[in-house]
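User: Hello! I'm new to structural biology and keep hearing that structure can be predicted from sequence alone. Could you demonstrate with Glutaredoxin family protein? Please show me the input and the output so I can see what each looks like.

Assistant: Of course. The first part below is the input, the amino acid sequence of Glutaredoxin family protein. The second part is the output, the predicted structure written as tokens.
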Amino acid sequence: MEKKHSPGVKKGEVLLYALSTCIWCQKTKKLLKDMGIDFYYIDVDLLEGEDRKKAEEEIRRFNPRGSFPTLVINNKQCIVGYQEDEIRKALIG
């Protein structure tokens, strides 16, 4: 499964599960880029077969509803939806 990378300042392992057509997912990507955060993202709707199934299973570990965007920080903290204040607090403090 291919993860796309957006370089920036390392704030731990930051992974965004998104849909390529979702406006809230696009806003979350833009926010992370504007903040200068190093992160990876997966556009789940562009995956096929086993890759897509695996991504959906990973999402449900953190977000049982499987909704988007799902932002996972250090495999511990999960922020669901476009929650600008919560994202800023988690990554900047």
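User: So the tokens describe the shape?

Assistant: Right, they're a compact way of writing down the 3D structure. Reading them back into a model, for example: The mean pLDDT is 96.
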